[in-house]
Amino acid sequence: MHMSTALLETAGSLAAPFPARRLREMALAAGADDVGFVALDDPALDGERDIIRAAFPFAKTLVSFVMRMTRDNVRSPARSAANVEFHRVGDETDAVAHRLARALEEMGARAAYPAMAFPMEAARWPSRMWIVAHKPIAVAAGLGRIGIHRNVIHPKFGNFILLGTVVADLELDSYARPLDFNPCLECKLCVAACPTGAIAPDGAFQFEACYTHNYREFMGGFTDWVETIADAKSARAYRRDMSDSETVSMWQSLAYGPNYKAAYCLAVCPAGEDVISSYRDDRKKFLEEIVDPLRAKQETIYVTAGSDAEDYVKRRFPNKSVKRVGNGLRVASIAGFARGMSLRFQRKRAGGLRAVYHFVFTGAERRDLTVAIADGRLSVEEGLIGTADLRIRADSQVWLRFLRKEANLFWSLARLKIRLRGDPRLLAAFGRCFP
């Protein structure tokens, strides 16, 4: 692909500091629909800085940009229409990042870009695979704010966007500021449309419910499918677990890019100057044409056994069928156990539980944790804090095998690899919060 004349005209000596206005013109000429800039040393990026520098040591400025999607494709109950738009715009997002990085390189500046989505650093799974978290960078660069559905909402284009980032060693003469308002209307249509109940009316988000269903044909769901094949003793046994349409769907994701099972929270969001008129002018029609077809669609919703999502689908969507699956979110370390509890926690299952747990891990990975569960809320803190209702002392590797169902609890207790002090029934109650 040849670079456009507009990009070639930018070649020449670099100014110091480099004009933000000129860099904006370059990004728009490369095909971005909007762009913002944030310095890597901005306090908003404290959680990202070291990770970005590990991949791109020269990084000084992050160029965040948005690419618009066709709204009615994303809104369609036909998942193929929505997914082809994600794939098409995703490819174009990477192409825009490439053209801009190439233009900067032609000028003598170092520049690089991570993928919009995939490929990622798969060897790091199940820990963080992505190099750059596009969402917090876009927010810091003034391109939008996070809505109740955990997606970036652009003030003009709404949430019908994909995000890209270019990393450069430029220092600019000016940087963007975050928006001083949130375009999210808090209309709760994303709450109503979500088939798994992952988005709560009070703004809480249940990662595990969204991940298990929507990402069924991605990382963990894919490994679960592979293990289903490995465990099947015959083709007939495999077909008892997987329908022909599910197998074909997996093939499609392998051949044409992984497909989302639902992006309904995006589809129904009316925020953004270009989007809001149809909702504001006729809300009844908006609901009938956009929200209701997604809610009425007959489809399979993938859940983990004993989860809040399983109960939610059966109660709110009797027209949708439920299928219990694994999601591949296996704990590989005690650090991962500590981080992952908030992602797996089931608020409804935790219901009437009020308990404080002290975990003392010994052996290969030593760590002390205090976990408190009360009123459907979870707290995880380092160290042993306060008085525990149940104290669990465990060899770290045995505990991880127990979580993965590779070690028997009673055997571990008998061998003193796991020791309990307090009411042992609280351990079962703890397990129900993290199916």
TrEMBL record:
The keyword Transmembrane does not apply. Coiled coil: none annotated. Keywords: Iron, Iron-sulfur, Metal-binding. Residues 175-204 form the 4Fe-4S ferredoxin-type domain. InterPro entries: 4Fe4S_Fe-S-bd, 4Fe4S_Fe_S_CS, SCP2_sterol-bd_dom, SCP2_sterol-bd_dom_sf. One of its GO terms (molecular function) is iron-sulfur cluster binding. The keyword Protease does not apply. PANTHER family: IRON-SULFUR CLUSTER-BINDING PROTEIN, IRON-SULFUR CLUSTER-BINDING PROTEIN-RELATED. This is 4Fe-4S ferredoxin. It comes from Methylosinus trichosporium (strain ATCC 35070 / NCIMB 11131 / UNIQEM 75 / OB3b).
